[in-house]
């Protein structure tokens, strides 16, 4: 058995190997303006006053970086605290290698909840869009609209309690502590014969760069064909008027309205129980399937970052979490495009 080699320079040797492999977080440091992201959060949710004294809060830009790490690596608050203490690449990214003051899990939760309650997710997401524009990655070649289910912690309620929740209220018998542990916004739905509890992330993705340009969050029971959600996702800044969607979105009224508004509609056709689709419609569906499949790549990446589930309760916190998830995906994608991918043109 080979014995471990003892070296006085072991740390330096490991550092050299890490440098050769490359730190994936260096690209974020080089290409992302975290100060602008921090400013957007402070504008929506100002830092608490220190008039009564107390320990000064951590800088907003530091906490924003921590939230991005949490999204990219799919870490719960406790796991994130441990990784911040243990992982050198995280400390280098945060510029904390020589610091003993590391935010704990409670601090991270409290910071994240402040902008969530202020509805700052949209501002953060839009700030990322502005940075994409500054780097030259404007929306091009049309857009693809789709939705993905996001699992939430399943609620175990009695039948009468579930009926009350469906009506949009809480049972009077629930005490404040119990109410804090209940999600009354998530809903059940079925997909491919399986039941799912949670929310739905609706997104518009540009066909050229596979960047998320607009998102909306609803409970899982809202149909993907809902008119208000679909139209709200359309990005008028895209250089092409082409719109792609799967067979869950077809509607004669929708397509007529979109064409009148100047959009080039590419929505797959759907058959019915008594009548299938024609051979020409099948060929049309296949032509649309290839460009539309690019959105599946996009949803697959956030899924690897934990995007298929949320650990928070309620649509307010979920909306912020999913905006942050989409923004973090866009930042990761930006680094890829800048360093190895398509040039902006």
TrEMBL record:
Domain of life: Bacteria
InterPro entries cross-referenced by the UniProt entry: Transpos_IS5, Transposase_11, Transposase_InsH_N
Pfam families per UniProt: DDE_Tnp_1, DUF772
Molecular function in Gene Ontology: DNA binding; transposase activity
Domain Transposase IS4-like: 140-331
Keywords, sorted A to Z: DNA recombination, DNA-binding, Transposition
Signal peptide limits: none
GO terms under biological process: DNA transposition
Domain Transposase InsH N-terminal residues, every copy: 16-114
Function: Involved in the transposition of the insertion sequence IS5.
Protein family per UniProt: Belongs to the transposase 11 family.
Protein name as catalogued: Transposase, IS5 family
Organism: Rugamonas rubra
